[in-house]
Amino acid sequence: MNDLNGKVAIVTGSSRGIGEAIARRLAIAGAKVIVSARTVEVRDEKLPGTVHSVVEAIRERGGEATAIAANLQKKEDREHLIAETIAIYGAVDVLVNNGAILVPGGTIDFSERYYDRMMEILVKAPFHLAQLSLPGMIERGVGGSILNISSRAAIHPKIDRQHGDGPVYGMAKAAVERFTTGLAAEMYEHNVSVNALSPELVVATPGQMYGRQYTQEMLDAAEPVEVIAEAAHLLTTGDPDVVTGGIRYSQEVIDEAGVVPIDIGMTAPIPN
After folding, report:
1. Which residues of 205-232 are buried (b: 16+ CB within 10 A; e: fewer)?
2. What is the pLDDT of residue 112?
3. Is 268 contained in some domain?
4. Domain membership flag for residue 265
5. What are the catalytic residues?
6. Alpha-helix runs per DSSP H in 90-224
7. pLDDT per residue over 116-154, tens digit each?
8. Which SS3 state, helix, strand or coil, does residue 149 take?
């Protein structure tokens, strides 16, 4: 249960949804978790959760967590996130790049403003945060882990089928996956694992459900958030000699490990 004991983990986009679930799971594993996102107060009841509420939930169950607000679109916020984490905990051992934005739409009418925003958050931010985190991982000589949360949108769509999220989001996630494999090869000698992880199915998070009409049938078929959280835990704690360079899917990771996702609803205390 304590395979991340003493390690410091940053999870971006962790005020709700997949990011929150991963932050909770890594805390259960003993990590000191930096909960990071833009959301410091609830402005829409359809999008509950803040960095502070997630930290409070982790601490209530005996885990260790600290909130650091950051807008991933801003270079200075990304630099502050890493610098403040090191100032508080002395290191970054695990970086989970989960923060994201999805603006659907076709190519012809897609605005430059939203294109630039998506590329900054989805592509440049993970690259920049890796640049800021890796020197410390390498210098300490004890390895580390980077996990980039991706999406099935990165898979090339069939020509005769509509692709709901549009080409820009898929292009960005495909770029992240190619960055993942390239960085894994580069970091292999330094004992730093780098993987990409996607949900096997749609995860019915508040962000996914916002503005969409989900039927009960769709909700019943959705992937429980615990599945991707457990897969994230497995990839960030696996042997870097073996578990690296993967473009992985959550249920596949779970099945391969032969484990059952644990309860991240905080029904039991997080071990110290």
Report:
1. bbbbbeeeeeeeeeeeebbbbbbbbbbb
2. 97
3. no
4. no
5. 169
6. 112-119, 125-140, 166-187, 206-209, 216-221
7. 999 999 999 999 999 999 999 999 999 999 999 999 999
8. strand
CATH of the domain at 107: 3.40.50.720
Q: What are phi and psi of 171, to 5 degrees?
A: -60, -40
Residue 263 inside a domain? The answer is: no
Percent of the chain with pLDDT over 90: 76
- CA quadruple 69, 71, 72, 78: dihedral positive or negative? negative
Q: Is the pLDDT of residue 269 over 50?
A: no
Q: Which residues form the domain of 157? A: 8-257
More confident residue, 92 or 266: 92
Cα–Cα distance for residue pair 107/55, rounded to 1 Å: 39
Contact 77, 128 (CB under 8 A): no
Provide the CB-side half-sphere exposure for 188 (13 A, CA): 12
Q: How many domains does the chain have?
A: 1
Question: Full-prediction pTM beyond 0.70?
Answer: yes
Task: Average the pLDDT over 254-259 and give the result.
Answer: 96
Q: With b meaning 16 or more CB within 10 Å and e meaning fewer, what string describes 52-80? A: ebbbebbeebebbbbbbbbbbbeeebbee
Rg of the chain taking only CA atoms, in angstroms: 18
CA pair distance 91, 168, nearest whole angstrom: 34
Q: Phi-psi region for residue 158, left (φ > 0), alpha (ψ -120 to 50) or beta?
A: beta
Residue 196 domain-assigned? yes
Cβ contact 127:179 at 8 Å: yes
Q: What is the mean pLDDT of the chain?
A: 89
